[in-house]
Sequence to fold (170 residues):
Amino acid sequence: MKTVQRKICLLGDFSVGKTSLVRQFVEGRFDDRYLSTIGVKISRRQISRPDYLLNLLIWDLAGGDDYDDVTSGYLRGAAGILMVCDLTRPLTLHTLRKYRKQLDEIKLDPVVVIAANKVDLVAERAVDDSLLEELSQQINAPYLLSSAKTGEGVAAAFDQIAGLLEKKKS
Fold:
């Protein structure tokens, strides 16, 4: 069976759960301790598609306001972007709009999916579905709810990116 390799980058503010999503997807585990990513951490996971194996190179990029030329360099060659926001912090949606604008400015056209993370924190949720729908339309990217802690929606997010890559190719 043929193997295809694709680079996927995670973008989002500090502490939205990017590293935890990757850890849950790649290792099947969650860790409550917060460790800020410095620069980039690269992980790998292979997933089966109907006609081939998809080898995902997952680039977990440091989050925050300091989106500079170095980060732009990390994005080169990305086939897909998983933008992550925190359902307990509405300001993290604004950051995703900024990332979308910057992707357009550096002329990248990857497939983009939004992971609205921390859906397990029901009592703390401050972002409703109407705000997510608005964001989805503004940055032209589907969204799904996820929880790095419980695993809900994690594999689905990467599977959705894979499916969009297949549609884009055809």
In short: The chain has one domain: 3-169. Helices lie at 18-27, 69-75, 91-105, 129-139, 154-169. Residues 3-169 form a domain with the Rossmann fold fold (CATH 3.40.50.300). The two ends are 19 Å apart (CA to CA).
